[in-house]
Amino acid sequence: MNNTSLENDTSTVDENKSTSTRLPIDTPLCSPSSSDGRYSPSPDSPSAAPSSPLSHQPCASQPPHPLPENYQLTRSVWIAFGLWVSVFLSVLFITLDSFSHYQRDISDCRESYARPLYIQQTGFDSEMTRFAGKYALYLYREKGIDVSGMLTGVPVLFIPGHAGSYKQMRSIAAEASYYYYQNYARQHDSLEDGVRSLDFFTVDFNEEFSALHGQSLLEQAEYLNDAVDYILKLYPHSRRLGPKINQDLPDPNSVIILGHSMGGVVARAMITLNNYQPGTINTIITLSTPHLLPPVNFDWKISKIYDAIHDAWSREWRGGAATTLNHLQDISLISVAGGTLDNIICSDSANVATFLPSTHGFTVFSTTVPHVWTGTDHISILSCSQFIKILAKTMLECVDARRAAQTKPLEERMSVMKRAFLSGLEERKGDGSDIELGDSILYDIPEALVLILLPGEPLIIKEEWKTKMVLIPIDRDKNPQGGFNVLTDQSVGSMKPVDLHVCTKSEVPSDIVRVRCRSIQSIAVPLPASTYQNAPSSPENTFTFASIYYSEMTDYDFLAVTYKPGSEGFLIAHSIDPQHTHTHVDQSMVSIARHGISLKIDPALVSFVHIPAIESPMLAYHLKFSRPSCKVKTGLFAPFLRQSIFTMHESKFHVNIDEQETVGISLHGRTAFSTVSTSHGKNPHGLTLQFWADPTCPHPIHVDLSIDWYGSAGRIGFRNGVMFSAFAFVIVILVFAAQIRCYNMTGIFPHFGYGLTFCVRHVLPLILVVLALVSYYQPIGSRVFTAFNPTYSPTANYPHNAFDWNAMWKKGTFPMAWHTILLGNTDPFFWWIPLVGLLLSVGLICIVWLLLEVFLWMSAALCSLSMSLWAGSYRLYPRLSETRYQQFQRRAVTTVVLFVLVATCIPYQFVFVVAFLVHIATCIRLKIKTWTAPPAQQCKRMNRYHYMQSILFLLITLLPFNLPILLVWIRNLSVHWFVPFSSDHSVMAIAPFMLYVELLASHHSMLPRCTQRYWHWATFILLYGIVIYAFLYGIKYTHSLYSISNSLICWLLLLHFSDSGYGRLAYHYLMEHLYSFRSKKHS
Questions:
Q1: What end-to-end distance do the CA atoms of the chain give, in Å?
Q2: I need a surface site. Which of 281, 338, 399, 1002 has the fewest CB within 10 A?
Q3: Which region among 54-58, 460-464, 518-522, 1054-1058 has the lowest average model confidence (pLDDT)?
């Protein structure tokens, strides 16, 4: 007898043994099926006791009920699946290509250099922190500049992000050292004002995966609070022994935090922990940090941490009850994002405006920062020379070592930050109160050197400037809402070639012009130069622009332009007429998608186009700018454009606009799962386009804007990719429900393709209709919910926020936080995205199904071949001779050992992966058995194989929730950190999967058929309840899909137990006592 036949005989014997052990009572399990395809009790069974609610159909070679037509894979279905796969692969290619090559910011970052020296702080040991064996603290010193080991400045703590290195801060620290010693170290006045160098400390987290594991993030935050306490204790001693100029300074009681990526989240989490000492942090600067949503939401702990951080920070500013976090009142938080070049973190999540008032922080993009004007990717934001120069200078300007906090007061810090990071083109108050005026100066200038223009006359200087001052009269009577725009290629300031003043004129009886003026150079802002010769956004070659309205010059009569004689270049001063220079586009997104936007703008130095409908970051646009009646490349400067959106202080400049090219417009803004726009005050919603064009050409400007659908594909996929994990899980559950339905009706458990066919034909259309209705209503419901709950925090957990049920009932709205479901969409235009995602997920599942079929077939073929080749060499199955008691004993011991290990040292995710591999091996063995099964066993084995394959599909969809934590655990082992996680040792999180995989692998079990409608409907209520929950909350709380899958496995275990001998005994016992109780009650 060969090995194959031995296996067949043994399998048959085992199955017969298994069947005999499941019959401890005399009542037969099942009987021939009734005419409707369901089992009925045997007429020979006792009538005194009710029959079992679950049963097995002994499947013959020819099943009594053929597979229903709705499940059959016809040629048209195969063609449909092929098209589905083709569409999915095409969309995947388009999305990746669009995301990688289209609508990307230009990167003009220059390299930075450093000569680092890292000094480990060995005094920060296990006596001061329990994580001394896992992490390390270093002091950075720039070779040749800093005094090695001597603390002479203000402490700064750098926090690396996910898989980040402690060495990533070297460029910023080196630039801060060079800038201090070149500009402040030898200036006595600066030292007297409290300016000191920066002592950069950095933390080695061993490149830990903090974005994947919430417990690691908490451990980092706890360690950093201990590190801050240690750092502050170093300064009293060092200042007493340091330079004399530092000996009178107060001891520091706070540090500046600089966090990159997830390091910014850790910085915010530090303040919420118990070991945080209030006041030890007052300035936080984050770079490319996802403040609103975790990059990967597969861990329940990290989702809980995000909710706790948002709740703690937002409560402080939303008028909630008094908390222990009142020390947030002195904290400033600046979030800097890289833009579209950041492929790791979606910059929409860098927004802090949803939980932080503008008086304490803001979000800004590197494309906005003056003299930077370039995008940065996730890593280059730490080394981009243009940006780190601004960052280092700004941090030094915030320092005031005369105060114990080591920084300037909050208002002064915020003023420094806004001046350094914002474009300067943001709207002012409009009454002149926020304009810094210079000292009043009386000028007596010969009349020949003064040019007084007529009201409304523009000033255009093209060549060498001959006069000394130009007075432009303020014409309030004709245009009370007007003002002036000034553009020049010269620097503006009191010591610069050009200066701007507001003046009043005094009459004197001579050829002298007497004016009293005050400088308004503070309104002058730099812009990237746009000429027909220079390279785009060159930071060395800049323009200067100033804008002021009549309402800001109420006490003055003239705008004066003064310049040094002999200056060369151009200067244009043009009056503002808002009625002609400001265009408001009142089109909906549907209209923009269908027809685009076509505008004709009157000629002016600066023109504004405001489009309120364009606020979502998921779409990109094509813009064409033309002046067909003007000569090409003959103006004083090349036309250029600024796009801006106030929600996150994002500005992008497009210079040297050529009429032959198309400008790409992409923006960031409202993120998912947010109820309100982050625009504040009088600032408008939507996109604002600001055009600068040479006013010497009197012809209008033609602007055409349309959606770039190909360029938008990458943006939509990047922001909604997580929905595929949730929707793939939904489809697997739907197919599983369809398979169980067929099994209960006919006794045939169809394979995955048949179940998918039924879902596509009958279930998917209904779900698409319901999903479309919910998705379309979601933005409406979100606005209604926000209107009835103005104090609701969009970043906190829904159950922790109170809302008025009575008001909602009277208004007829459902009391649901609509912004937390589905994709968290608040724009009605994008109602179709969940539908497209669900349809594409079907294509994804088709691919996984085909690949899994090929993998199992090839693995089974290789195993079968190996068994036939090596059958005579050694015994492949030494455990075939084990008795059932021995098998049970061995498997019970293994299970108990795994339970103990999970409860003590290994995370349950490791056991899940082991169970997954065991189940794959079981499926391969079953595949071989289906090839060698006798006709009498063919149907039964195919049923079991198809069922096992469906369970394998479920485990595949749950792998993303377990593999990241397993990677973190393996990473900890690699750095010799063996302390177990406190959040991933729940035995109940893995026990159902372990027991069920063990049951299926060892007992040759098959899911029992439900023959009573109560069990039948209970199963389907559970399955479709899981589907509904996964649709509503599976995207925001993706990790919860694992928990509800655990519940499903528990239910399957219950069904198996009910079909066992012990289960039937329990069932009979309950039924007898229940009937007895009812009889007594009736009597």
A1: 67
A2: 1002
A3: 54-58
Structure-block tokens of residue 810 = 């009277």
Q: Residues with Cβ < 8 Å from 842, sequence gap 6 or more?
A: 84, 731, 756, 760, 764
pLDDT-derived band at 1063, boundaries 50, 70, 90: low
Q: What is the pLDDT of residue 932?
A: 84
DSSP 374: -
Closest CA to 762 of 81, 76, 70, 80: 70
Q: How far apart are CA 17 and CA 1008, in angstroms?
A: 17
Rg (CA), the chain: 36
Q: What is the DSSP string of 1037-1051?
A: TTTHHHHHHHHHHHH
Residue 639 to residue 699: CA distance in whole angstroms: 14
Q: Which two tokens stand for residue 584?
A: 């408001």
Distances (CA, A) of 762 to 246, 568, 756, 767, 770: 79, 77, 10, 9, 14
- The two beta strands, 136-142 and 198-204, are antiparallel
Nearest residue to 1019 (alpha-carbon basis) of 767, 741, 760, 763: 741
pLDDT > 80? residue 987:
yes
Neighbours of 928 (CB within 10 A): 20
Which residues have C-beta within 8 Å of that of residue 728, sequence separation ≥ 6?
A: 841, 844, 845, 848, 957
Q: Which residues of 544-568 are buried (b: 16+ CB within 10 A; e: fewer)?
A: bbbbbbbebbeebebbbbbbeeebe
Query: What DSSP assignment string belongs to 408-436?
Result: --HHHHHHHHHHHHS-S-S---SSSTTSP
Mean pLDDT (the chain, rounded): 83
List the catalytic residue out of 254, 261, 725, 983. Answer: 261
Q: Which own/partner pairs from 857-864 qualify as long-range (CB within 8 Å, at least 24 positions apart)? A: 857/927, 859/924, 859/927, 860/924, 860/927, 860/928, 860/931, 863/924, 863/925, 863/928, 864/4, 864/928, 864/931
CA dist 193 and 188 (Å) reads: 9
The number of beta carbons lying within 10 Å of the beta carbon of residue 484 is 22
Contact 641, 689 (CB under 8 A): yes
179-206: per-residue pLDDT in tens?
999 999 888 888 888 899 999 999 999 9
- List, for residues 709-746, the tens digit of each pLDDT value: 999 999 999 999 889 999 999 999 999 999 999 998 88
pLDDT value, residue 20 = 36
Selection from 694, 541, 574, 542 nearest residue 632 by Cα: 694
Is the pLDDT assigned to residue 41 strictly greater than 50? no
Question: Residue 255 forms beta bridges with which residues?
Answer: 281
DSSP characters for 641-679?
EEEEEGGGTEEEEE-S--TTS-EEE----PPTT-SS---
Residue 435: Cβ-neighbour burial (10 angstroms; 0-12, 13-18, 19+):
middle
Residue bearing tokens 């659908």 = 709
Q: What is the 3-state secondary structure (H, E, C) of 433-470?
A: CCCCCCCEEEEEEEHHHEEECCCCCCEEECCCCCCCEE
SS3 content of the chain, % helix, strand, coil (to 5): 45, 15, 40
Asked if 520 and 492 touch (Cβ cutoff 8 Å), the reply is no
| Residue 289 to residue 807: CA distance in whole angstroms | 38
Three-class DSSP category at 973: helix
Q: Is the pLDDT of residue 10 over 80?
A: no
Give how far Cα 244 sits from Cα of 247, 399, 894, Å.
5, 19, 70
Contact 455, 520 (CB under 8 A): no
The answer to whether 284 and 334 have CB atoms below 8 angstroms apart is: yes
Do 61 and 739 contact (CB within 8 A), yes or no? no
Show the CA angle centred on residue 978, arms to residues 973 and 979, nearest 5°.
135
Residue 131 — pLDDT band, cuts 50, 70, 90?
Answer: very high
Question: Which range is least confidently modeled, 54-63, 171-180, 532-541, 640-649?
Answer: 54-63
Token pair belonging to 951 = 């369970």
Across the range 149-157, mean pLDDT stands at 89
